[in-house]
Structures are given as structure tokens and as C-alpha cells.
Amino acid sequence: MRCTIGVDIGTSSSKGVLVDADGAILAQATRTHEVSRPRTGWVEMDGGIWWDEFVSLARELRAAVPDAEIAAVGVSGMGPCILLVDAAGEPVRPAVLYGVDTRAGEQIARMTADLGVAEITRVGGSVLTSQAAGPKILWIHDEDPGAWERARRLFMPASWLAHRLTGAYVLDHQSASQVSPLYDIEHERWHDEWWQRYAAPLEQPALLWAGDVAGLVTAEAALVTGIPEGTPVIAGTIDAWTEAVSVGAHGVGDLMLMYGTTMFLVATGEETLRTPSMWTTAGALAGTRNLAGGLSTSGALTAWLKDLTGSDYPELLAEAEASGPGARGLVMLPYFAGERTPIQDPDARGVIAGLTLDHGRGDLYRAALEATALGVRHNVQTMRDAGADIRRIVAVGGGTQGRLWLQIVSDATGLAQEVPQITIGASYGAAFLAAGAVTDPAPAIADWNPVVTTIAPDPALASAYDALFDRYLRLYAGTAEVVHELAEQQRADDEREVPA
Questions:
Q1: 58, 16 in Cβ contact below 8 A?
Q2: CA 360, 361, 367 angle in degrees (round to 5)?
Q3: 351 DSSP 8-state letter
Q4: What integer is the mean pLDDT of 368-385?
Q5: DSSP character for 339?
Q6: Does residue 227 contact residue 216 with C-beta atoms inside 8 Å?
Q7: The model's pTM
Q8: Would you say 180 and 137 are in contact if contact means Cβ atoms under 8 Å apart?
Q9: 159: which residues sit within 8 A by CB, 6+ positions away?
């Protein structure tokens, strides 16, 4: 029985699947982990965890179906992350994670002043924000010179797994396009002049597309993982793009909406659209371009409320549903870890307006769900203003398991969402890409993972959510000055707490 393995390294867990040639999931496995937040705005992770969890997942999947013939391996991971390793292939420091890590503000300002907004946008597609990986490379150079002196190569979770399995040093185009401003999006290559200016002495990884074969499993990796020597391994890509592949939301006119620890949106087209509020990237597949966005918190916010109240999700969901649209007069800004798109404000913070002594945890939970929904609406509106032709929305990720959150997003945005049969996301997409790399003809995702549900908005709630969205926008504008002062105070408090 020919199968493929797909593994995704996420923010709060790593997931693996074993899938047969028709797309049926034969086995699943998960490993949970935590990121490190040593200071406000810093989000890191030990890169060694990525490989250790891959090995553990691969062995569990192999043991679950011992007679499976592993035809190929797919890899995926959160990103853009910056993991630097030395000449021996050992990480020189913890990986700096994607846009939720906001430490590189000074480097963003310096690179922008050095190169100019117009030139950065022309070459890389996007202005520099906390999502851009280039300034984080420069931060390591500036703030951790001991690590920088030893650094020789750059990895992200997917490329690190591919390297450990095959020895190849590659990065896919989509991930590379988020190492802004060091990637030339129109010519689909590294921008040599800027690489030498900001990233030397790092060796440039070879560039592939997500579904291209990076190499074959080595004898050493086979011994550790149980995956046969010589098995093809794809280059893989960042999890949100692999999620889009997993549900067939990577065609022109598609928008993928990923419900996870953070919320992510990827709109696919053929043109390179540029707007300072969103991220312009290469697509997962050759010939495509994306306009992407992300909320810094979504599932992380609901998990925080669950832990804070000592409740469980079924209780909170039931109480949130009873609270009703508008959460009995509450408006929440979900910026508890700063915000990525479209406001691009790392100093944004969470705000809850309208609280009274009559409000309960269900109202707060409802307000949190509505806050993420209004954040999605803000992103979609910004994408369309930039010229994105959004014809179809497909939902994916762990949050799709609860109908209430999906319904609130559709009601708040006025947009229907298609929900496929399998919504586990990136690990499944990685397995699909791996199958496509070794199968002729390649399988179709519509056959593997058909749409089974469509969530339609309730037109009777349109005016209520229009009013709530207006308040949401005005609440940010009205509180930003005070919130920014508080963010500065938080950083100062952190500095005092860090030992010399």
C-alpha cells in the first residue's frame, strides 16, 4: 500500500499524518510544545524541538501501519522563522519566529531608511513589518554577535526537516519571498546585492517550489526515523500555504482562511499586488502570487480566556452562543500580542470596551470570537481595496471544528465559507504535495478532500455587524495613543526585570 507522510511544525504543536494514495488518513499523531517569550514582543523556539518531534511522529505513524510503503515525505512549518546554524549544522541560538515576534523594530526602521520604501516594495513586494524575516536576520547580527559570528546557513521549520532528512540546503520560493527584502519577487531569485549587505556570511539556500523534491532520505535519517533510505522528500513551505493546498484554496480567486493559534488569510492571483497593509508573496505553486494577512492572536486568545476562567471550551461556547451577537454590548480588540495586518502595529494591545458588572465569561468569549471575525473582515476589505479578486473562501484549521466561530465569521464578514471534509490542515497538505511529486498523473485535491459544508451568513445580522465593525475601527483609533504608551511601559518593565 503506497502512502505518503506529512508533518507540520506549528506554533503550539506538531502534527503528522499517514495518507494512502486516495487521500484517506490511515494514522495521525500530535506533539504539543510551547514557544518561549523571554521578553515582551519576543517569540522564540528551540529548533532542536522541530527535528525531535518529527522523529517521534514519524516513528508513531510507521508503527500504526507497519505494512505501509512510504512513497514520499511532505514537510511544512510555521513561518517565516529564522533558524541560523553553524558550519557543523548546529543551531547557534533559538529560532526567531514569524510576525508575532516584534523585536526588530529598530532594524525595520534602519533598513527602510537605507533602501527606501519604494525600492523595497519594488523588489520584495511588501513594506517591512514584523512579518518580514530580513530585519530579524539583521537583529541577530546587531544584538547577538556571538551567534552571528558562528552562523553559516538559514533555515525555516520545513527546510530544516528537509535538510535533516536529506542533507539538502534548500528553501522554497514562498518562504524565501518572506525573507523580505532579500528576495526579488518578480525575478523569483535572491537579491544578491542586499543579501551581501545584510546577510553575509550566510550561504544562500537553493530555491525550489513547495512540491519539488529536495532530496532523498539518507541512511542516517532512515535509521533515526524509520523512513526507508532513498524516500523522496519535498521542499515544503510555510504552514498557511500548505493549509491552502490541503483544501484546494490555491487557485486564482481563492481565499484560504486558517483558524489556528493565529488567524491567517491567503488570497491567490496571477498578478503581484502591492499594498503597505498586507504581505505580497510568491505562491506555493509556480505561476501564482499571493496577498496574505494574519491576526497575531485568534486561538491563542480563546485559549487565554479558557485558562483565565478555569473553564472548558464546550462551556464557553455554549455561554457565548447564549450571549448572542454583540456580546451584550461588548467590543474587543484582539491585539493581545500586537497586530499584524492590516494595521501593522506591534505596539497594539488588547482592549475590551463596554464592560459592566453584569457581564460574564460567556460574553467575554463571544466578544473574543467576534473580535477575530472583525479582524478577518478588516483584512478582506483591505485585500479587495488592493485589487484582490476574491471569489471563493475556504476555511481550514482546528477552529473549524466548532460551528459557532465559523458562523460568527460569516455573519461579521457577510461571506460564505466552504468547509472541506478534512480540515486538519498543513500536515495533510504536505502529504498531498508529496504524493504529487511522485505520482503521474498527480492526484487532485478535490478528489482527496471534497467540500462537505457551506456556512452562509445570516442577512438579518448584517446591519448589527456593520455597526459593530464601525465601533471596532473607532475603538482602535481612539485608544491607540494610550495603548502605545502602555506598550512602551511594558518594554521598560521587561528591561528592568532582565538580569544584567
A1: yes
A2: 100
A3: E
A4: 97
A5: B
A6: no
A7: 0.87
A8: no
A9: 169, 170, 171, 172, 175, 205, 214, 235, 236
Which residues are within 8 A (CB) of 162 and not within 5 positions of it... i.e. 6 or more apart? Answer: 75, 168, 170, 214, 215, 233, 234, 235, 236
What are 385's strand-pairing partners?
A: none
Q: Residues 359-387: what's their mean pLDDT?
A: 97
In this predicted model, what pLDDT tens digit does every residue of 154-180 receive, in sequence order?
A: 999 999 999 999 999 999 999 999 999
Range from 252-266, 272-286, 348-362, 383-397 that averages highest in pLDDT: 348-362
Using an 8 Å Cβ cutoff, are 381 and 276 in contact?
A: no
Q: Locate 42 and state its grid cell.
A: 519576543
Complete domains list, the chain, with CATH: 2-240 (3.30.420.40), 249-421+458-500 (3.30.420.40)
Whether the Cβ atoms of residue 393 and residue 417 lie closer than 8 Å to each other: yes
CA distances from 448 to 20, 22, 287 (A): 10, 6, 23
Per the prediction, the chain carries an average pLDDT of 96
Distances in Å between the alpha carbon of 434 and those of 75, 201, 206, 444, 462? 8, 32, 19, 13, 42
Task: List, as one string, the DSSP characters of 446-465.
Answer: HHHS-EEEEE---GGGHHHH
Q: Which residue in the block uniquely carries the three cell numbers 508533518? A: 7
